[in-house]
């Protein structure tokens, strides 16, 4: 008896994933809950386990294919012993990686072996471009037509023969549309497909620029008092809480205090309504080799300094290991990003829709300033940026938000008495 293995539910608003790697080849034995395949979504990578013990009898979607939630990945023969596959069989699930080779195996599948049953993603592309699926050369496993096959067919002019008077383009196509087969420079270039995460980062950032009336206001903060406080207590803090006392917990606390005074910065536009949030889920932008991810501190206003620092350290570690969960990156009412860790002195961060504001932290530099006494002193200065959606946040509110943060961070004792 064969058991179908489907693409699992991937989380709210996530409907598609890419197949990164098959851990098993057709014919190999699998144990119950043993990982079969690795999928990449726009947020995380996940492993799909085998629902039964047996043998992997058939792989439906090969490596590199895009699959939607509920699509068939493979079939597992329950209870089968699973003979070890022959060496040639191990390469069968995925097409050959070398695109330059013109070996017979890369040719379209013979008519007898074609499988014109389309995945939801491919069917959508075919319908939107008014194509005849039977005319598209298929290179996928078992003769399946992949999204790449459709893209190549379109790039080669295949759509000209189809009557498509009202065919609507795929919304994301202009951003990633291939302009024919671009030859690589022999002096040294390599072609790497955009990851699902990188595509979504690009799409969401462009979406924010296209839909929000985004502006950025700046200020600077003298962090000398905060640095002195941190120096005095960091050793005792780490010994007691087993966490390093960083700057981010102070900025999270200061941001929440400012958000409480200026609720529009913590709100979002939904259609023709404004939704005000009476909770504070703060997104913390974390850079990884795969791209930027934004895990969320839930109910951050209820967390202590130690709880914030421990959570952020844990986010950073698991983000680099690719172990963050979908739930940890969903939602968020306001985001903080720290380009200063990379040496950035000034930037204009892009808001994370549907949020209405984002705070950008930057590098701390010693600069001469004039203090309250009219004297020239050396301050530990940081430029901060507040990008905001001008549809919901007025300039007065945006500027006041940074002023409140500046007041609190330059006199951190105010955090203790909430003023």
Walk me through this protein's architecture.
The protein has helices at residues 87-90, 120-128, 147-155, 173-176, 196-211, 224-241, 248-261, 305-320, 395-410, 414-417; strands spanning 2-6, 16-22, 29-30, 35-40, 45-49, 54-59, 66-68, 72-78, 214-222, 268-270, 273-275, 282-284, 286-288, 291-293, 296-297, 334-338, 357-361, 364-370, 376-389. It has 3 domains: 2-90, Beta Barrel (OB fold (Dihydrolipoamide Acetyltransferase, E2P)); 104-199, no CATH class; 214-417, 2-Layer Sandwich (Chloramphenicol Acetyltransferase), CATH 3.30.559.10. Strand 18 and strand 19 (376-389) form a beta hairpin. By secondary structure, the protein is α+β, with helices and mostly antiparallel strands. The strands form 5 sheets. Strands 9, 12, 15, 16, 17, 18 and 19 form a 7-stranded mixed sheet that branches. A 4-stranded antiparallel sheet has the order 1-8-6-3, with no helix packed on it. The protein has a 4-stranded antiparallel sheet with strand order 5-4-2-7, with no helix packed on it. It has 10 helices and 19 strands.
What is the name of the CATH superfamily of the largest domain? Chloramphenicol acetyltransferase-like domain
Number of strands: 19
Provide the domain count.
3
> Secondary-structure element order, as H and E?
EEEEEEEEHHHHHEHHEEEEEEHEEEEHH
List keywords for this structure.
419 residues, alpha+beta, OB fold (Dihydrolipoamide Acetyltransferase, E2P), Chloramphenicol Acetyltransferase, 3 domains, 7-stranded mixed beta sheet, 4-stranded antiparallel beta sheet, 19 strands, 23% strand
């Amino acid at each position: 008896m064969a058991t179908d293995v489907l693409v699992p539910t991937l989380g709210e608003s996530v409907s598609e994933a890419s197949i990164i790697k098959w851990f098993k080849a057709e014919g190999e034995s699998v144990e119950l809950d043993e990982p079969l395949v690795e999928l990449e979504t726009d947020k995380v990578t996940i492993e799909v386990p085998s629902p039964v013990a047996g043998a992997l009898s058939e792989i439906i979607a090969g490596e590199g294919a895009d699959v939607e939630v509920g699509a068939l990945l493979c079939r597992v023969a329950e209870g089968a012993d699973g003979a070890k596959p022959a060496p040639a069989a191990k390469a069968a699930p995925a097409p050959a990686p070398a695109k330059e080779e013109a070996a017979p195996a890369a040719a379209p599948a013979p008519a007898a072996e074609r499988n014109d049953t389309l995945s939801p993603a491919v069917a959508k592309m075919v319908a939107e471009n008014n194509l005849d699926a039977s005319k598209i050369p298929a290179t996928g496993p078992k003769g399946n037509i992949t999204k790449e096959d459709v893209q190549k067919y379109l790039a080669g002019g295949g759509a000209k023969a189809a009557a498509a008077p009202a065919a609507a383009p795929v919304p994301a196509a202009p951003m990633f549309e291939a302009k024919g087969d671009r030859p690589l420079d022999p002096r040294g270039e390599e072609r790497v497909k955009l990851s699902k995460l990188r595509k979504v980062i690009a799409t969401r950032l462009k979406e924010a620029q296209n839909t929000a009336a985004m502006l950025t206001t700046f200020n600077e903060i003298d962090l000398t008092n905060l640095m002195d406080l941190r120096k005095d207590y960091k050793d005792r803090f780490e010994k007691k809480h087993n966490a390093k006392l960083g700057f981010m917990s102070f900025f999270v606390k200061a941001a929440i205090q400012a958000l409480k005074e200026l609720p529009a910065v913590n709100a979002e536009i939904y259609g023709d309504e404004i939704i005000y949030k009476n909770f504070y889920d703060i997104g913390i932008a974390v850079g990884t080799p795969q791209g930027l991810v934004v895990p969320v501190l839930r109910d951050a206003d209820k967390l202590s300094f130690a709880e914030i620092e421990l959570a952020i350290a844990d986010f950073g570690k698991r983000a680099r290991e690719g172990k963050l969960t979908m739930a940890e990156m969903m939602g968020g009412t306001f985001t903080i990003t720290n380009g200063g860790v990379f040496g950035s002195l000034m930037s204009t961060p892009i808001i994370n829709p549907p949020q209405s504001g984002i705070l950008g932290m930057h590098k701390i530099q010693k600069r001469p300033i004039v203090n309250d006494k009219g004297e020239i002193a050396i301050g530990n200065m940081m430029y901060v940026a507040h990008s905001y959606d001008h549809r919901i946040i007025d300039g007065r509110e945006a500027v006041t938000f940074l002023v409140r943060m500046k007041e609190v961070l330059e006199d951190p004792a105010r955090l203790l008495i909430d003023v």
